[in-house]
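Objective 1b. Sequence-to-structure analysis of S-adenosylmethionine:tRNA ribosyltransferase-isomerase.
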Amino acid sequence: MNVDLFDFALPPERIALHPAAPRDAARMLVLDGDRTLDRSVADLPQALRPGDCLVFNDTRVIPAQLEGRRGEARIAATLHKREGPRRWRAFVKGAKRLRDGDRIDFGAGVEATSTARGEDGSWLLDFAGDEPVELLLERAGRMPLPPYIAAKRGIEARDAEDYQTMFAADPGAVAAPTAALHFTPRLMEALSEAGIGHETLTLHVGAGTFLPVKVEDTVDHKMHAEWGRIDAVVADRLNAVRGRGGRVIAVGTTSLRLLESATGEDGVIAPFAGDTAIFITPGYRFRAIDGLMTNFHLPRSTLFMLVSALMGRERMQAAYAHAIASGYRFYSYGDASLLIP
């Protein structure tokens, strides 16, 4: 499909620079069948049914942005995928200044060697020493705010908490699964009282999620792979939810993409551990999920293509036009949508 079909005009003032406070006070646009409803995230227990199950991504964002030097040259790196115990693939500003075997000093006793440049321009970085890389990043790294926020303001101390979900447990992501940022212990208690369950999986979100689609046709776009895991007990419980007539509602496109990657043509969710580069566009037949809670996405992005596949492109274009006209806040720190086809 032509990428231009997924374009829309978004006023810059609609981009949220901070999350709602409290988190569950954010607005929520509900598309349920043919209905379009303006609600808040706190209304989620009433928007779902007893027996439904929400699926969260428990990945934890690491301080994956590093600034350093190779000699006199300044190097900025954003880690985006672990390739080994001490090896990460990274997008690098100043990449043309690097060669195989160059040593980069990121300060605070953190050094890495560039070992191989990928076709996409990224580099493999091998970190020196014996300390876990996560500890090195805690010393030298910064939280990797999305570029559309970082371009408008600097990183603030509160981002270290604001940009983690309440489910964050497994370190490895360089971007938050932002739909889950709206959840609070109070909301989870209300969901439980309404008979709505929840499960967790892990998908370590990579920086590739922010890369623009540069091709004219979706068939020519290549997704970056991300590592994920669904435990066998979680897969069994989700299959049981659907067996009882409940609905599986993915919280975030990351949860959705991993669930769909793990599900066969028969609709059975299987245990999963490995990379996924699934690219969902209109025409895709969903097998694992019955709905999606997600934030509002970039024009021409793979994520807007995904929600268009779920609800229909014209429906989503109309919904986004309504959201823009109604003052909804967009992107990672913005408001939510609940999409039930």
